[in-house]
Amino acid sequence: MKKTLVKGIIACLFISLAVLSSNVQANPGASTVNASQSLGGKVVETMSSGGYTYMKVDTGAGQTWVAIPQTSVKVGQQVNYQAGMVMNNFSSKTLNKTFDSILFSSGLVGGGGAHGGMSMGMPSTGGDSFASAVQAESGAAPTAAQAAAAGSGGSLGAITPFAEIKIEKATGDNAFTVSEAFAKSAALHGKTVRIHAKVVKFSPMIMGRNWIHLQDGTGDPMNNTHDLVATTSEQVNVDDIITIEGVLAANKDFGAGYKYSAIIEEAKIVK
């Protein structure tokens, strides 16, 4: 019995190391921190342009530039802001300035911003996807690795960039859009739900199950509610448009970096 337990622990450690290694290799040019963390410090310089507020923050360990949705902040103010994605050599067209390094945050902790923690999409784009926001401000779309590094309602680093698509909602009393699945995750915990969406990523046999990333064009990529993961024993292909039914779990933590605010388990394809 003891030998079996030890072997199981060792196997789990190897799986964890493999998962962490693959995430680092998949995102070599981007860095992320846990989305549940908040950071903070004293504002030593600030400016607003193009729908963003840029803050140079003294964290005590150094100074860093942070971009948030346009918010009223003052020099000398102590701020706490959500963790996010760091981009290097980011050029802002509206400021005509290049930042050696800047952290894109969804906003101050507790809200208080003009966008209330909503998307960082630029007003001029008419959209709220992360890709359109960065493209509007820098003139270049982020790489897949950079967009992925923004995190998800699922595990950080595993997110698939927002797809500009529109998929009709499934039919039935238990049918929900991707956005609704996240918004109502607490109430839907443990209940069977039906989702009609496009497969944007398929990862076979991780921890004994297949992982499907689903998008239907709903959700806010800056609040990480556009990419819904389902686990299943079934096989699908990227770009398939499918309807699945499964049990929704809220705040599911599998360990090894696989933590989801909403996930569909035991998913079956509805023919």
Q: Care to describe what's here?
A:
With 271 residues, this protein is an alpha+beta fold. The chain has 2 domains: 31-148, Beta Barrel (OB fold (Dihydrolipoamide Acetyltransferase, E2P)); 178-269, Beta Barrel (OB fold (Dihydrolipoamide Acetyltransferase, E2P)). The protein is 18% helix and 38% strand. The chain is built from 5 helices and 12 strands.
Given helix and strand content, the structural type is alpha+beta
What oligomeric arrangement do these chains adopt? single chain
CATH class of the largest domain reads: Mainly Beta
What is the name of the CATH architecture of the largest domain?
Beta Barrel
- What fraction, in percent, of the residue positions are helical? 10-25%
How many H/I helices?
5
Q: Give the terminus-to-terminus CA distance.
A: 44 Å
| Count of β-strands | 12
Identify the strand order in the major beta sheet: 1-6-7-4-3-2-5
Query: Which stretches are low in confidence, meaning pLDDT under 50 for 5 or more residues running?
Result: 2-36, 111-131, 144-154
* CATH fold label of the largest domain: OB fold (Dihydrolipoamide Acetyltransferase, E2P)
Round the mean pLDDT to the nearest integer and report it: 74
What is the overall silhouette?
A: elongated
How are the SSEs ordered, and which strands pair?
Layout: H1 2-26, E1 31-32, E2 38-49, E3 52-58, E4 63-69, E5 78-82, E6 85-92, E7 97-104, H2 130-138, H3 144-148, H4 178-183, H5 185-188, E8 192-206, E9 209-215, E10 228-232, E11 241-255, E12 258-269
Parallel strand pairs: 4-7, 10-12
Antiparallel strand pairs: 1-6, 2-3, 2-5, 3-4, 6-7, 8-9, 8-11, 9-10, 11-12
